[in-house]
Amino acid sequence: MPNIELKYIIIFISVLVFILALIKIILSVKKNLHKRSVKAKTDAAGRQGEENLLLKANKLKGYKRILTNLYIPTKNGTTEIDLIVLSKKGILVFECKNMSGNLYGDDENPSWLHVSYNNSFSFFNPIFQNRIHITALKNVLKMDSEDYFHSVIVLNDFCGMKNLKLKQDTYKVIRLKKLKKTYRKYKKIFSKEDVEYIYGQLKQYAHASKRIKRNHIKQVSSK
Q: Of 7, 22, 29, 79, most Cβ neighbours within 10 A?
C-alpha cells in the first residue's frame, strides 16, 4: 500500500514539474513574441521618421546634397548615420527618433527613457550617438574643426520634451516641424565646391554592401 501511495506521489510531482516547465516555456515564448512585436513596430516607426525627415530636408532652401543611411567606418566596425545634409551652412548630421511618448533624459547620461501609456524602455542617448557619428566623419574626412559639423537630433512632432534637461550649446534637439527654422539660423561656411568635394568623399558610404550591413547588425546586437 505505501508503495502505491509513493507511486502516485511521484506521478503527481512529475506532472506538476512538467506543467510548471510548460508554463515557463509558454511565458518565455510570449515574452519573445512581445519583444519582436515591439522591435518590429519600433523599426517601422524609425523608417517612417527617416522618410519624413528626408521629405523635409529636401525642401530646405539653397544648394545642398543629401545622403541617407551611411555606414561610416570606426575603430570597432561601423556607425550608421540616418541622414546628412551637406550645404554651404556646413555638414548637418541628423539622428532621427520617431517616438510619440514622453522622453526623459539629459546631455550627460548615456541613456534616455521613453514612456508611452503603460510601456517604457531606455535607449542610447541620441546626443552621444551623434557625437560618435561626427567623430567617425571627422576621421574619414580628415576634418578636425567642430565648426564644420552641426549635430541635430530630430524628434516626433507629438513627443513630450518637457522632461529633457538639455543645454543645447553644441547640438540641437528639435521637433521635425522646427527643421526649417533651425536650418536658417546656421551661417554659411562652405562654397559650392566644398559641398561637392565632401559629397564625393562620403557618397561611397551610402551604398553599403549586404556584408557591411550584416556585420553592423551583429556589432550592435553584441552590445
A: 79
β pairing state of 149-155 and 90-97: parallel
Identify the burial level of 72 via C-beta atoms within 10 angstroms of its C-beta, where 0-12 means exposed, 13-18 middle and 19 or more buried: buried
Residue 106 pairs with which residues in a beta bridge? Answer: 165
Largest CA distance in the chain: 98
**pTM value?**
0.77
Mean pLDDT of 195-207: 94
- Helix, strand, or coil here: 126? helix
Backbone angles phi, psi at 170, to 5 degrees: -115, 10
C-alpha cell at 221: 546586437
Instruction: Give the residue carrying C-alpha cell 564644420.
Output: 148
Pairwise CA distance, residues 59 & 192, whole Å: 18
Contact assessment for residue 150 and residue 133, using Cβ atoms and an 8 Å cutoff: no
Please say if the pLDDT value at position 107 is more than 70.
Answer: yes
Contacts (Cβ under 8 Å, ≥6 apart) of 83: 50, 53, 54, 57, 66, 67, 68, 69, 94, 96
Report the alpha-carbon distance of residue 167 to residue 78 in Å, rounded: 28
CA distance 36 to 27: 14
Q: Are strands 149-155 and 160-165 parallel, antiparallel or unpaired?
A: unpaired
